[in-house]
Amino acid sequence: MKYHLIIMTGRLDNSFINIYDLSYLSVSSTLKGKFRPRHPEKYKGDAGNIIYRSSWEKVFCEYCDRNEDIICWQSEEKRIRYYDPVMKKTRTYYPDFYIKYKRRDGIIVEEIIEVKPNRQVIGPPQNPKRRSKAWINEVYTYATNKAKWKAAAEWCEDRGMNFRLITEKDLKL
Containing domain of residue 127, as a range? Predict the structure, then answer.
């Protein structure tokens, strides 16, 4: 099954944007698996052990592997410490992707990418009709994710990198 996928890269201040049409990539219905790159030399780590946990992550792996502008990439190889407000302890976060790419103007950019469903990015409703167990779990997940993303953004800023969340809306799926 083929989908139309467009990836937009850029800075938060929108000073530049690159757009890539990835309609040639396919999305499988499989949610988990091992990705086998066609260009293992681009992968920074064990190219034989690239795990994807969703079809969206698989599409992003294909994008990283096939895009000539991407110099190197990693999947769940970076470690970021964060404080989990739900568990009330310091934990380790492994972001979905690290990419290093050359922009069209020749500048090299490094980014940490997290692929999430849009509903997890916007969070649960603040005042639902029923406060079910499912809603409570969504609240906890959202609080934990926000702590991870804040730590990742700070970690990236300290290293001159960008942090970006990508949802199915960004992937046009």
Answer: 6-171
